[in-house]
Amino acid sequence: MNTSKTFIASFTPKPFSMIAKPIGAVCNLNCTYCYYLEKKNLYSETKNFKMSDEVLEEFTRQFIQSQALEEINFVWQGGEPLLLGIVFYEKALFFQNKYAGNKTITNSIQTNGTLLNEEWCKFLNCNNFLTGISIDGTEKIHNHFRITNDGSPTFHKVLHGINLLKKYKVEFNTLLTVNAYNVDFPLEIYHFLKSIDSHFIQFIPVVERIVNDSENEAIKLTNSSLPENARVTEWSVNAEKYGKFLIEIFNEWVVNDVGEFFVQLFDSTLATYLGLPSGICMFQPECGQAGAIEFNGDVYSCDHFVFPQNFLGNIFTKNLNDLMNSVSQQIFGQNKFLTLPQKCKNCNFLKQCFGECPKKRFLFAENGEYGLNYLCEAYKMFFSHTAPVMRFMANELINRRAPQNVMYWARNNGN
């Protein structure tokens, strides 16, 4: 496949986002299914994973100056980014202000919530940090996988953190990983999220493969580029169960909660029926516009592809804009569509899915083509089930009527 010629002919520099990992993979939790914890083994000689002031300033300067957009969002993740303390983020705000010019700067942070206290919540509120909280459901469900390094449960600490966010009026959303255990409790989980006033919800399906005899013994989780001896982990979600999970929650949402509770997947699917991009990178025809920067300035193609073969370079040896618009990164992004199996290209739901994330595309289609997504069955179930509702909602919006009308329609059409 002559992908490089295809790439060069169509190359146009594009806006990009970055997920900053200012403390690398260091975390105060030891969640069984976490794909990022082992990434600290890429830096086996490192003892201090804290992003230095020098790296922070250079990243801030380069990221702002690389963006043509008037609003720029800094995304902070980990590991656990709160381990750095408030002073680090005060410095981040200082550097953002130093280089902002006429641009508007916003910040988002993803946390496990266990370290939130009143001081943190005051800071997040005063500085308008959109805060994502990882929580997997009710106490029993959450504590099944989300534990501390000594095996202690974390549910009550997370719930305390959420209550503080609400007390200090911090805008937050919840990120819930759907795994082999909690996939069996869709409505219990959804009702719980509503009970804690989570009006913005993301479901992230856990799909990981592990290699027992990898060349780098410290890195056992692998991406879609085989090897053939990789196996799906026992904590990964089953595709059929994931499809049913989404459908059960959708059926509840569409008759009761449209316009009040927002589920990212439902919103992104509706967008495609309006002829708009889905808004989620994994459902775009191409990827490569969401890089990851580690604590030392190393840049990778994506935070799900922090592997040696996806290392783009370091911001002290090459400009961030050049790294993210390099030939290798553009080929990485274009290959998302170019390597789709014919089964995907012929699918009725191509525009909703585009093969989802390349990391999960490791199955063989019926004709022997490699690259079918592990969750293909789940998405076909979901997109097929929701199509009539999505068409109705899209029609309401096109005709400038309230999409909430779908609740009455769904109740009377047996959804």
Q: What would you say this structure looks like, in words?
A:
The protein is an alpha/beta fold. Helices cover 38% and strands 15% of the residues. Strands 10-6-5-4-3-2-1-11-12-13 form a 10-stranded mixed beta sheet. A 3-stranded antiparallel beta sheet has the order 8-7-9, with no helix packed on it. Strands 14-15 form a two-stranded antiparallel sheet. Strand 3, helix 4 and strand 4 form a beta-alpha-beta unit. The longest helix is centred in the last third of the chain and has 23 residues.
Annotate the secondary structure layout.
Elements lengths: L2 H8 L6 E4 L32 H14 L4 E6 L9 H14 L4 E8 L6 H9 L2 E6 L4 H7 L9 H13 L4 E7 L7 H10 L4 E6 L3 E2 L10 E2 L8 E2 L6 H18 L5 E2 H10 L16 E4 L4 E3 L10 E4 L5 H5 L2 H12 L3 H4 L4 H4 L7 E4 L5 E4 L2 H23 L6 H7 L4
Parallel strand pairs: 1-2, 1-11, 2-3, 3-4, 4-5, 5-6, 6-10
Antiparallel strand pairs: 7-8, 7-9, 11-12, 12-13, 14-15
Helix pairs in contact: 1-11, 2-3, 8-14, 9-14
Task: Provide a short characterization of the protein structure.
About 40% of the residues lie in helices and about 15% in strands. It is an alpha/beta fold and about 425 residues long. The strands form three sheets. The chain has a ten-stranded mixed beta sheet.
